[in-house]
Model the fold of this input.
Amino acid sequence: MAVNRAAVVDQKFREAIASMPAIAARDRADWDQPVRGGTRLSARRAVKLFEAQVESRTLDLLSRELKVTGDSFYTIGSSGHEGNAAVADQLRQGDLSFLHYRSGAFYCTRALNTPGQTGALDVLLGVVASSDEPIAGGRHKVFGSVEMGIPPQTSTIASQLPKALGFAVAMERDARLKQRQSQQVAVCTFGDASSNHATAAAALNSASWSAYQNVPAPVLFVCEDNGIGISVRTPSGWIANNFQSRPNLPYFYGDGLDLPHAWDAAHAAVDQVRRTRKPAFLHLGVVRLLGHAGSDVEQLYRSTDEIESNEARDPVLHTARLLIEEGWLTSEEVLGIYDGTRRRLQALADEALRRPKLTTLKDVMAPLAPDGEAIQHTQQPGLVGPKEARADLFRGRLPEDEERPRHLAMQLNRALHDLLLAVPEAIVFGEDVAKKGGVYHVTADLTKRFGVGRVFNTLLDETTILGLAIGAGHAGLLPFPEVQYLAYLMNAIDQLRGEAGSMQFFSNGQYTNPMVVRVAGLAYQRGFGGHFHNDNGIAALREIPGLLIGCPARGDDAARMLRTLTAAAKELGRPSVFLEPIALYMTKDLHEEGDGGWLTSYPDPQDAMPVGEVRVYPAEGEEHLTIATFANGLYMSLRVAHRLAAEGIGCRIVDLRWLHPLPIDALLPHASATGKLLVVDECRGNSGIADAVVAGVVESRPGVRCHRVVGADTYIPLGAAANLVLVQEADIEAGVRHLLEQP
Amino acid sequence: MTRRALVVCPGRGSYSRETLGSLSERSAAVEGLLDACDAHRAANGRPGVRALDAAASFRTTRHVAGEHASLLTFACTMADAYELDRDRFEVVGVTGNSMGWYTALAASGALSLTDAIRLVDTMGAYQKGTPIGGQILLPCSSDVRAGHLEDPAKVAAIDTALARCRDAGHAADWSIRLGGYAVLGADKAGIRWLLEHLPKEIRGSRTFPVQLAMHSAFHTGLLRDTAETARRDLADLQYQAPDVPLVDGRGKVFRPFHADPRELADYTLDHQVVAPYDFTTAVRTALRHTGADVVVALGPGNGLGGPLARTLVAAGWRGVRDSAGLAALQASDTPALLSFGVPEQRAQLVAR
Done:
C-alpha cells in the first residue's frame, strides 16, 4: 500500500521542530527588524506569512482527510508552493490576481491582509462544495474573491494569462482616458508546465510586444516552478533558460523555499511593475509535495529517495526553522501556531460540513440564467447619446431621418457610432479596426471620431484580443473586440469557452465578462477566400453555456440587435457573439439588380431587438409551409419564395436571428400554422442549428412535418466549387417541393 | 468538553437601570480589577465604579453620562471576562461593539488593564457636559435568515435620508451597523431632522427611530477633534499583539504574535472613533476566522443578544438557517449564544 505522504510531511514537520535546540527569544520590540541579515522582510511580516503558510498546508491535509470520509471533492493542493505568500504580501486593494490552483498560501495571505476576509473557511467551503462558498457557491473549488480582487479560476492551463495582461492594458487605458494616474497592477500565477502552453506563449509575447512600443501593461507573470507537470519533468533550468533574457520582459528570481529571498524578489518585481507600468516575469522556485492531487500516486513515477528529498525541502519547515534559529519564535511557539491552526481549521471544517450544497438544477444554473427576467430587461436599453452630440457626430444629419436606405455594413457602422457615443466606457479593438476601418469598413471613421484611446488596432492574435476583452471588462470598460473571420475565432475559443463564458458561473454572478465579440463570418463570397474566410461552422460557439449569439441578415436588424447585445453586456455583464454575415455586408438588391430590396432605413436609436424575437416574412396569399432560417439562408429563401409564389406556392419565412439560445418558442406557432417546416441552415450539417431547431419543434409539435436543407460536412473550396458544398437556392426550392409532397 | 468561545464586549449604552448592582457579589478574582478601576477614578477625582454601581437608585446623570458609564460598563464587562469558566470555555477570539472595542483590547491582552482603564475613562471623561451631536437607533432588517441580514430597501431608505439630511446642511452618517439595526450619528440639528424624516417602525413596545440618551456621534467625522485630543493625551499607551485573535470594527483580525501595535494604536484612536463601526462584520468575521462554536456575550445587560442572534442566523452559523433553527439550537445542550446578562445563562458561564 502506498505511504500516506501527507501524514509523513505532517509528522516530519513536528519532529523536526520539536528536536530543534532552544534559542533565546529576541525582544518583541525588535519585530520590525529584518527577519535575518540582508533581507527587507521584517520578522513581524515573516511570522504573519508563516501563519498563512501553515493555514495553507493545513488546508491541504484536511482536504485529504475529508476525502477519506467522502466529504471532500478536491485535493489538488498547494504544499511546497507556500512561498507564493511572499508575492501576495506585495499586493494592495485594487490589484487583481489571476491565480492557478496551488495558491493556498497566496489566498490566505491576501485574506490576512484584507479586513473581513477569512481565507481558510472559504477554501474549506469550496473543498466540500457547499453552496455557502463565497465565490463559486459550490460550483467549483476555486480561489476567488471580489473583496480581495481575485477573479476565480478553475483548472488553469495558463488560460488566465491573456486576461491578466488584458486587465493591465485596459486599466491603464481607462486611467489615461480619465486623465488620472493608476497605481494598480495585475498578477497572474502559473506552473512551469503551463508556461509551455500556447496561451502562455501568446500572453507573454503580447506583453513584450506592449512593452516594446511603450504601451503600459503593469502585469507580473509569476511562474511557480516545481519542476514537474503531473508526471512529466520540466528540464532542469528550462524556465530560467527560456525567460531570463526575453526582450522587454525583465526577469526576477525568488527562491520560494526561502521566504526572505522570495519576499525580496517579489517586492522588487511588484515594485518595478507598479512604478514603470511595464510587465515583468518572476520565476519562483518551489517544490511539489504530496503529489499532483490526492488521487496521484507519485511513487509510480518518482523514486522514494526523490520524494523524500523533496519533502526535506519543505518551505513551511524552512520558514519555521528560520524563525526559531533567528530567535523570533521558540519551537514551542511554532508548534503552538501549527497545532492551534490545525484545531481552528478542524473546527472550520466541521462548520463547512454543516453548510448546504447545491440541490436543484435551477440553483446550479442561476448565474447563467439565459432566459430569465433579466435578459428581457435588455429590450429597453436606452443607450442613446445626447441629441446635440448625435447631431454633431452625424454631421447634422441623423441617420434615422435619412430617406435613402443603406446596406448592412453602413447601418452597423452607424450603430457603432451611436453606441460609442452613448456608452463612454465602450472600446473597439481588433486587427485593422482603426484607420483602415476594418476589412469591410464596418468600423470606418470610429478612430477619427472617438480617438485612438477607444478604437485601436491590436496585434494579430485572437487569444490576446479576447484576453484584452475579458480584462477590459474587469477594468470597468465595455469591450467590442473584433475577430476578423469566424475561422480565426477557433484558435482562441478557450478564451470564450473556458474563461469569459464561465466567469459568471464560477463566480456565482459576482464577476462578469461583459463583451460583444464582433465576428465577420459565414460564406457566399462568390468563391473568394476559401475556407478560412468563409467558415460556416458555429457548433463551437453554440455549445458554450450562457453565451448569447446573434446573427442579423439586414442593416436595420443588425443595428437593433447590436444595441441589445450592448445592453446585455453593460447591464447584465453578459458576453455575446455578434456574427456578421460577410456576404450580406454590401448586398443591396434582393430579387433583381437595382431593386434595392436588401437596403434598410436606420432604426430609431431607442429601438432594440428583444432577445429571442424573430422576424416573420408572410406569404402574400395562402401559406403552404414555413421556412425557418437566418442570414444568407434568409436571403436565398426570400428569393426562392418569391419565385415559387408565381406557381401559387406560399412560404411563410421566419428569420430566427438568435442562434443561441434558439427562439424555438417564437417559431412554434409559425411551424404549427402551416404544419410543415423547412429548416434552411447555411452551416455545415454537423455544426449548425438545423438539428436543434427540428428537435425543438418536433418535441413540442410532433405533428409538424420537418425537413432540413443544410451545408455539406466539408471544408469550403475556392471558386465555383464552393457552390457544391454550400446550400444553394435550388436546394431550398427542392426542399420546399419535397416537403409539399409529404402528407 | 471545552467549547470554543468567541467573547463579545458590549458598548457603553449597556449599563442600565436593570444592571444596577451587578458589580456586587463578585468572586475574589474580580477584586483586583475593581481596585484598579477605583484607584484610577479616585486619582482623577471621580466616583469609583463600585460606588456608582452600589447607588441606591439609578440616575441618568450618574449612570448614563459618558464620564461615569464608560468605566462602569468596562468594569462590568471585564468582571464577566474574569469569571468565565476557562476550563469549559476556551476563548478563541474577542471582539466588541463601539466602546466595547476598548474592553476587547484588554480582554484579549492587547492592552494592559491599567492602560485600558486609562483609555476608557479618558474617552469617557471627554463626554462630560454636552455630548457632541447624538446617535439614533432604528431597525434595518426584516426577513433575517442565512445569507440575509440587512434589508436593502431599508438600507437604501436610510442612505437616502442621510443624503437629504446632509443636503439640508447637517452632518450625518452611519455610526454602527449593529446586527440588523442601524445606529446613525449626526449633529444636533441633524438628529432632529432624521427623527422627523426617517420612516417610523414599531417593533415590540418601541417605536423607532429612537435617540440614544447622552451619546455623542461616535464613529463619525464629528468626533475628529476628540480623536485628535485622544491621540495626544493617550500617546503613551502600550499596545501589543493580543493573546487571542482580536477583531475590530472593520473585520480586521489582529492575530497573536504578529499583530502590529502601531496599527492597533492607529485604529483605536482614529478609524474607530471617526468612521463607521461595523459590528456585524466584526462578529461574522470573528466566527469565520475562529471557528467558535459558542458566542459569549459579556455584560452588563443583554443589549447585544438580539444583534448577535440575528448575526448568527445571517451567518448561517452552526447550520442555523433561520430564527427557528437558532431557537432549537439554543434549547439544546450546546447553545450557540450565551449571555452573562441572562441569569440562567450566566450560571452556565461562570466557574463553579
